[in-house]
Amino acid sequence: MATTLVTGGSGTLGRHVVERLIDADEETRVLSRRSAPVWPNGAEWFTGDLTSGHRVRQAVQDCTTVIHCASDPWERTRDVTQAGNLLSEAGRAGVEHVIFVSIVGCDRIPSSYNQTKAAVEGLFEESGLGHTILRATQFHELLEWVLDAASRSPVVPVPAKTYLQPIAAADVAERLVEFVKGPPQGRVPDIGGPEVRTARDLANLYLAARHVRARATSIPLPGALGSALRSGMLLAPDHREGHQTWESYLRETTRERKAR
Fold first, then answer.
1. CATH code at 43?
2. Where is the NAD(P)-binding domain (predicted)?
């Protein structure tokens, strides 16, 4: 039976991918820096390191497909090293299909984070392996993390005249798992959340849901980055395939927090 490896399988996106693969009765393997948790119905787990290459060769052995979800937001240049190591071992192992999730507008937004994602896309395209690249808009989980930190102050700054289209990581995972059943497709249409709203609207919804007394204030973001954000480069308005709205996500996670 074909086996799919998920890198970063314990992360925000990767854990949803693993859960959906298991639900679909796919033979599933995980590569993560963390020790193995207990997954329902199980997944073969490799604790390794894409940066050093530790156990990457063993993890990709006998795999048909690799879904690359691993990313290091703190040391972004590592993403390029990690992708290079993964693709090298995947090629050596005869992997037929490598799948990468990237970011909408990464090749047009002047920030190191987005430029790194674009560079990794290039590695996949130049690898000689059958590949599929899906760009997604910002995850609800990322927006929540940013606002959790920002709302510790009485004033929450948000970029003025900026629209966002957040999507649930679970919705992106669902799309990624669909690719496992088919052939490599190269760059596929982007995927975005179901709604396009201003950054200030999204922040205010968060503050209300969390009962935080801080106030969202729009701040003009200067330079090329501010111009790129205001021009809508983060959006995929023609691809509102995500199911869960930001408000629905906030209701769900607020209930979960109260239940802890």
1. 3.40.50.720
2. 8-181
